[in-house]
Design goal:
With about 350 residues, this protein is α+β, with helices and mostly antiparallel strands. Helix content is about 20%, strand content about 25%. It contains nine helices and 17 strands. Strands 2, 3, 4, 5, 6, 7, 9, 10, 11, 12, 13, 14 and 15 form a 13-stranded mixed beta sheet that branches. Strands 1-8 form a two-stranded parallel ribbon. The model is unreliable at about 1-15, about 15-25, about 30-55 and about 335-350 (pLDDT under 50).
Length: about 350
């Protein structure tokens, strides 16, 4: 059997690590050990990827530098799919490549409030839902065949001015639309009701659904987002956390039933390709005050800002991106709508 060019590309990307890659990984190990020693910690036990604390190694990745996105597939053998996978996320949505699917239903997210913990992970702001709750929040509809239980959400955002527009925080989202990046993005991750935990579901095909909500700057901020940004003032540094009681994720959803969907992956290591992504076709808004609250967040030191925590768009590799937006129906000045236009119209010969 003769491999196709795509097969050759994948095979070459997944070959065993060559000497330069091994040297890169060794350099990363030495760098993190040096950081631990400067902090007065024992790198063998707490910080070193070569040491005994496996959990520490799995958390030791960044968005830039020697442990940045370009090297995720090299740092850990279990993350190789971050480099050679062909269903990676996020992606750039190209309007002329969208496929209208009449069978897509509306997405349903339960409206009841939930509680959990908001954390500064050193990578992003993450909310973990209380999984002991007797009333878990469920997601269904859209492209999904089963119900999915909400596990957590991640907040990605930027901290620098856009060189062309000059707007603060003009870059920060992971998904892009026609090349346009948004100031921030919140991602709700849920796991299939077929499994009893996120850890089990993430290894299974279609085991996880990710709901991406793009965030734009505006004077009237989203109510749900306001609750989150008020709470982040209590999570300034890495490993800081605060309880978040009675939050309704339904408040985070934009006022639209239109969305895009595709098969992809986690956007952070280990990059498992088991995620069905749903991206709403309308942003929510935050104001400058909320932006400044996010810009106060730090990593492990008082100097390093937490933001700019987004992975660049990944190749689509012939994947199909479906949508429930019917571009054949127009309302107003070319705005697509799914609203049905119904009425009566007389034939031309009537009354002639």
């Amino acid at each position: 059997m003769v491999p196709t060019p795509g097969d050759v590309e994948t095979l070459s990307a997944c070959q065993p690590e060559s000497s330069p890659l091994l040297l890169l990984r060794q350099a990363a190990v030495e760098a993190v050990e040096a950081d631990c020693l400067l902090a007065g910690e024992d790198p063998t036990w707490q910080c070193s990827p070569a040491g005994k604390a496996v959990g520490s190694w799995e958390g030791w990745w960044t968005y830039d530098g020697v442990s940045g996105v370009d090297h995720w597939g090299v740092l850990n053998p279990n993350w190789k799919i971050c480099k050679c996978g062909r269903k990676q996320s996020p992606i750039n949505f190209e309007p002329d490549r969208l496929l209208f699917d009449t069978h897509l239903r509306f997405v349903h997210v339960d409206k009841h409030e939930i509680s959990g913990t908001l954390n500064n992970t050193g990578h992003d702001v993450t909310f973990f839902a209380d999984q002991r709750s007797s009333s878990p929040l469920m997601v269904s509809g859209g492209p999904l065949s089963y119900q999915y239980r909400f596990e957590r959400f991640h907040l990605h955002f930027g901290t620098v001015k856009h060189q062309r527009s000059g707007f603060e925080n003009a870059t920060g989202s992971e998904h892009r639309v026609d090349g346009q990046q948004f100031p921030a993005e919140i991602q709700l991750l849920c796991y299939s009701s077929l499994y009893d935990s996120f850890e089990k579901a993430v290894h299974q095909p279609n085991g996880v659904v990710g709901i991406a909500i793009l965030i734009q700057m505006g004077d009237e901020p989203n109510r749900g987002l306001r609750i989150i940004t008020d709470a982040v003032t209590r999570t300034t540094y890495k490993d800081d956390s605060t309880p978040l009681e009675s939050i309704s994720l339904h408040l985070l959803l934009p006022q639209t039933e239109q969305f895009l969907t595709y098969e992809g992956s986690l956007t952070t290591p280990p990059c498992y390709e088991t995620v069905t992504w749903i991206v709403f076709n309308k942003p929510i808004y935050m104001n400058r005050q909320q932006l400044h609250m996010l810009k106060r967040l730090r990593k492990s030191t008082a100097v390093e800002k937490l933001g700019n925590n987004f992975r660049p768009p990944q190749p689509l590799h012939h994947r199909v991106v479906r949508t429930n937006i019917d571009f054949r129906r127009k309302v107003g000045k070319g705005c697509p709508s799914m609203k049905r236009e119904m009425g009566y119209k007389a034939s031309k010969w009537l009354g002639a």
